[in-house]
Specification:
The protein is an alpha/beta fold and 153 residues long. It folds into two domains: 92 residues, FAD/NAD(P)-binding domain; 60 residues, no CATH class. Helices cover 35% and strands 19% of the residues. The chain has a three-stranded parallel beta sheet, with helices on one face. Strands 3-7-4 form a three-stranded antiparallel beta sheet. A two-stranded antiparallel ribbon has the order 5-6. A hairpin with a 2-residue loop joins strand 5 and strand 6. Helix 1 packs parallel to helix 4. It is globular, with a radius of gyration of 20 Å. It starts with a strand and ends in a 9-residue tail after the last helix. The structure holds flavin-adenine dinucleotide (FAD).
Amino acid sequence: MDTDVLVVGAGPTGLMLANQLARRGVRARIIDRHAGPALESRALGVQARTLEIYSHFGIVQQALDLGKRATGANIWVQERRAARVPLGDIGRDLSPYPFLLILGQEDNERLLGDALRNQGMAVEWNAPPAFRTAAASCSAMRHTSTVPWARKA
Ligand SMILES: Cc1cc2nc3c(=O)[nH]c(=O)nc-3n(C[C@H](O)[C@H](O)[C@H](O)COP(=O)(O)OP(=O)(O)OC[C@H]3O[C@@H](n4cnc5c(N)ncnc54)[C@H](O)[C@@H]3O)c2cc1C
């Protein structure tokens, strides 16, 4: 595999990393063992700092258009509302996006994937699993690294 950087996994972490690398002119290959993005419902809340980073990627407006600003959270105990936590503009004076945006993980992954494609990179789906376990990963690095590996007593 010919690449300077291999990003294993095209979840939010891998997609964010690949975009950050691309912005700095580092071309990476990004592989994932799955056939495509996750389809089930996962994380929902996008924090202000993430939106600030999205503005660097040029995708913040799409995220704002797709998502919904959270006004508050209700806590239910035994079928009764026990508390309400107002959220509103929780980051007032701290961020240009002073709120929690409700936008599903699958939409976030799609936007990050689009941003990657705009920079000429794309996820390689159906890749053979890289480094199946942490132990296998260490073992592979040991074989390719010239750094001596000390064994703990
Ligand atoms: C059902 C569910 C509900 C959730 N709800 C919430 C929520 O409400 N709020 C919240 O904050 N978080 C929630 N989470 C957690 C959130 O989804 C994770 O924090 C987030 O997905 C982590 O992103 P990630 O990129 O680090 O990992 P992942 O999204 O797990 O992505 C890792 C990717 O790497 C790939 N991969 C892994 N190993 C290899 C390998 N060896 N070779 C090739 N590819 C590989 C996988 O196929 C996967 O696509 C939920 C998770 C699940 C499963």
